[in-house]
Prior knowledge:
alpha/beta; single chain; six-stranded parallel β-sheet; about 325 residues
Amino acid sequence: MKRLIVVLMMGMLIFSSALVWAAPAVPPSQMKIFYIVKASESECWQIVLDGADKAAKHFGVELIAQSATSESDVARQVSILETAIGMEPDAIVIAPTVADALVPGIEQAMDAGIPVIIIDSAANTDKYVAYLASDNYKIGQIAADEMAKALEKKFGKAEGKVAGVTFMSGVGSLEARKAGFLDRIEEKYPDIQVLEFKDAQGKQGNTLAITQDVLTGNPDLKGIFANNQYTGDEVVRALDMAGRKDLAVVVVDSGPQELWGLENGYVDGMIVQKPWNMGYAGLVYGILGRNQVPVAKDIDTGVVVISPEMLETGEADEFLKPIEFHKDW
Length: 329
């Protein structure tokens, strides 16, 4: 699989030259692409940007990457998008923090002839060139199935009270994960009772207190689902402080505490996206968009469930250590 993405993308670019021969195509080495992710403080987004940076070096693109410090700073992301539009880049790649606030800027860019590639989370508009993301609703469904497996393994049956924690209401990707989880539980696991999802309100530190409160208030709790890195890391921290390895725990993303929890018996299943691939492909689709190459509008970048066994065999390295894995590309 080494260099497979590069080969595929190079093939698309070669094919694109034929499609746009009569149009004012621009060589990638003359392009400037603005890349906006959700937060600079997140390891996940650093992985995305590493993939984008690698693609920029492969194709000679000038990459301008900016982000707010925190995902809760939606106003800052809006401001960055306005700045990007003013610079008139060849394309803009953006991971919208919320579904509505970025819509005016995205549509303004498209109306100005700047192709927009959306990654990770959807925006409430159909004005974009391509949307590259994991199927977040499917992530929620997978999480429900993994929760049922973990409950069966620890308690003999998929039943009992399960808590859910989301980082911030209104975030498209997280809302989809929540919906997928709840719908799958309702469809397949009638004996699992999901308590009201708790909202960390976009603030790091809140999930720690939420988890402690849920544990105290529900002595018969059997499981916890955390739907992103921030919530997953803090759920593990709270369980470690309480010495609780008896619960069925499913998390999304691969934060340092989440990974530690998987290694040390606090986490049963970790659903990991492919952010490095998403970052790389986002930039390449920006190149294709600039040269008006027809592409699929919606692309599923896929997920994988990491088990403790995969850690032991090294099978998980590509997904858990993507920067190191791709360093020699």
